[in-house]
Design goal:
- It contains one helix and two strands; from the N terminus they run ββα.
- The protein is α+β, with helices and mostly antiparallel strands.
- The chain has one domain.
- Strands 1-2 form a two-stranded antiparallel ribbon.
- The longest helix is centred in the C-terminal third of the chain and has 15 residues.
- It is flat, with a radius of gyration of 11 Å.
């Protein structure tokens, strides 16, 4: 994915963007388990560092 590819199809949508402005992850849908959501987001963010 690259810049400008924000074609959001549903809400909520989680987007992780790397330091170059490229979209690395775009995941639609809600996660009701807050711990699982935090773990998922941490993994995605760490992988783009």
């Amino acid at each position: 994915m690259s810049r400008g590819d924000f074609s959001i199809q549903s809400i909520p949508t989680k987007v992780v963007i790397d330091k170059n402005g490229n979209i690395r992850y775009k995941i639609s849908g809600a996660e009701t388990d807050q711990n699982k959501l935090l773990e998922e987001m941490n993994i995605m963010i760490e992988s783009v560092k």
